[in-house]
Amino acid sequence: xxxxxxxxxxxxxxxxxxxxxxxxxxxxxxxxxxxxxxxxxxxxxxxxxxxxxxxxxxxxxxxxxxxxxxxxxxxxxxxxxxxxxxxxxxxxxxxxxxxxxxxxxxxxxxxxxxxxxxxxxxxxxxxxxxxxxxxxxxxxxxxxxxxxxxxxxxxxxxxxxxxxxxxxxxxxxxxxxxxxxxxxxxxxxxxxxxxxxxxxxxxxxxxxxxxxxxxxxxxxxxxxxxxxxxxxxxxxxxxxxxxxxxxxxxxxxxxxxxxxxxxxxxxxxxxxxxxxxxxxxxxxxxxxxxxxxx
Amino acid sequence: xxxxxxxxxxxxxxxxxxxxxxxxxxxxxxxxxxxxxxxxxxxxxxxxxxxxxxxxxxxxxxxxxxxxxxxxxxxxxxxxxxxxxxxxxxxxxxxxxxxxxxxxxxxxxxxxxxxxxxxxxxxxxxxxxxxxxxxxxxxxxxxxxxxxxxxxxxxxxxxxxxxxxxxxxxxxxxxxxxxxxxxxxxxxxxxxxxxxxxxxxxxxxxxxxxxxxxxxxxxxxxxxxxxxxxxxxxxxxxxxxxxxxxxxxxxxxxxxxxxxxxxxxxxxxxxxxxxxxxxxxxxxxxxxxxxxxxxxxxxxxxxxxxxxxxxxxxxxxxxxxxxxxxxxxxxxxxxxxxxxxxxxxxxxxxxxxxxxxxxxxxxxxxxxxxxxxxxxxxxxxxxxxxxxxxxxxxxxxxxxxxxxxxxxxxxxxxxxxxxxxxxxxxxxxxxxxxxxxxxxxxxxxxxxxxxxxxxxxxxxxxxxxxxxxxxxxxxxxxxxxxxxxxxxxxxxxxxxxxxxxxxxxxxxxxxxxxxxxxxxxxxxxxxxxxxxxxxxxxxxxxxxxxxxxxxxxxxxxxxxxxxxxxxxxxxxxxxxxxxxxxxxxxxxxxxxxxxxxxxxxxxx
Lengths: 294, 604
Description:
The complex is a heterodimer of chains A (294) and B (604). Chain A has 294 residues and is α/β, with parallel strands linked by helices. Chain A is built from ten helices and 14 strands. Chain A has helices at 40-47, 69-74, 91-102, 107-120, 136-147, 166-179, 193-199, 217-223, 238-244, 279-287; strands at residues 2-10, 16-25, 28-33, 55-60, 63-64, 76-79, 154-158, 185-190, 202-207, 210-215, 228-233, 246-253, 256-262, 273-274. In chain A, a hairpin with a 2-residue loop joins β4 (55-60) and β5 (63-64). In chain A, α3 (91-102) packs across α4. The longest helix of chain A is centred in the middle third of the chain and has 14 residues, at 107-120. Mean pLDDT of chain A is 89; it is low at 290-294. Chain B folds into two domains: 3-262, no CATH class; 341-603, no CATH class. Chain B is 69% helix and 1% strand. Chain B has a two-stranded antiparallel ribbon with strand order 1-2. In chain B, α2 (25-43) runs parallel beside α7 (102-131), α16 (346-362) runs antiparallel to α17 and α17 runs antiparallel to α21 (491-510). Chain B is globular, with a radius of gyration of 27 Å. Chains A and B meet through α2, α3, α4, α5 and α6 of A and α15 and α18 of B.
């Protein structure tokens, strides 16, 4: 169980990145959605013991992540949003290095672990290839492999599928689903809504350093039942619709514009038909409003 | 040229100025140059020789000395990487997809950075100009002057910088490797000295015309003249000097022309930044440019059930205890040393070390001091000191910042390896590299001694020189460099400060101000006789302890101020925390340094 209490962080420039985050996350994949600058990466860095919060508590399985960093790092696997690797080392050498830093001392044990990790992320054939020659997807897979060393209790993945092609993204989804277990919390920070709807049992939305939603994707969709409407209009009509209705999103469609709106009071105008809500509707509606949902 | 066509040039030029205004390096350079000027004003030869500190002669002397000793490395710092920076930051596709020509881009970059460099250098001239309003006891000061400072600054410093700056800019831009620029500049010192020796017997006019730094202006022709005569001398520029300056301008023009014709806008194939693909996501996601080269990767194997469900074996994690830390340290050291060995600049440095050895020992007639082995060992050690200083500054700096530059730092810092493992492995790797080069040099020295037939060969003397003289000096220099990089957090600033400190010690020791306390590397404080039973050996041994104590203190400070967050308390769970141990080591090393320092000074 990951417990976060009243976590706050303000940078020296005065930017208040986190304004008191409270979260209780049990084992499984947990999605953290939010726009750019919401505080997701700051939160991830604090959980990964790379940043000191101003106040608050973080604990995983009873271990205080703020006061007992060495113990925390033993339980942690971290895949940041942007990361690099030593280009001259091979995949095998890279994993061996991280395994030794993680504390896997026995050479035979380490070799078995590396074999299994490379197999798991489909990099066995490239094990002796220098990392500098890897594609983006291969680097990302090697990144998740190093995060899996030592059966961590908390795995933090920050925007893991940004930049991956659909095949790689699908592979990644499968991997994340498999590694989440009864003992492991996988914290997935992203602004790709479809990743959360595919993978996560629970999710939270963070905006301007505060949690503005904490629910299951199903509950989020249920919240929007019968309140999402859709129409397709000419471009010139969009402004008028914006003036009278709460627009969730607009999308070009065959030369016209598909407009989705939020309306609790029934049909917002002629030409609108009820639409099945998506998690993206929920997210876009929430981040553009001050309405909080728990 | 119309104003429209000048617009891209002006934009690049202005951007360079703006960028440099926000950097620390130019301000650090201004400070260093001003301090340099003050040092030479207060501790230079003017007072002892009766030269007026604001005479034409002394102004030219100062500026020529500045051109030789201080400028080259800092020119490399400012002019080596303006274009490399754009490729490193990944902004090159955004710039080159705009209608800006090669000439506009390169000229804008060069001129912008050169202007900043000149402003920094002007601080040297400005400081000596202002200091003419002050005087110390015995100092001769003529009536205040302005024009000679400006005139000689432009003639002796700016034009020399133009040529050297163009060279550094060209080398850096074409090779996309700033280390090669530094290597080139370091090598140029040897080249210049060799060139001076070559033209030594030539007529003065030729020497003036072909001296890139115009050092011969003050080195020749004024010896034997009285101080009064020199103080009244008005330094004009004769035909040879003007020809020299024209030649320097031509060198600059040639370099920039070569650069213009050979510059390619595509990223280097060996760019260290891996491919950064950002594909279209949903409407909420930004669309980025596809950049970098996609290296051909093996097609991923089709996923099978066995791939997906490969179970990861349970492993035992041991991260506490001395053995676990030793294991982590050995792993980190292995990787750090492997990465250091892969540095391309070693291809230049290692042969240079051997060449230096051969030149020092074989090219000049050696007069044995005590014994041939002692002479060979001491000459090798003295010659190696500059290289080892360079390795400590540049390679230690590279290892300290490599993790951040390759962006592997978050992955490493989230492992349970303690700070001292990550830090000491870098120090040890650099030390290992230095020791490898020292071994190479000493083996070469032994070979040269044998080849010259200078018997007897005393291996113990070589070992003593290595272990007693060189090794603690190397440890100190690397510890100091590591510590500066941690405390200053900026690689180039650490370079500048290290070079300034090293240069100051070197300069003061050259003036005879050579205290054992602020010369931890023992430069010019020992002779070969000390190693063959001379009276100073005990003092040297105590001094080495002093040096090691200082090194420990520096490393302890680096650990205390390390950026990676660790527990703030000095105790954790009833035991000393890592921070506590660092503080304890710092305290202990201060005590040892005080005691040994006191003993060293008393022995003198």
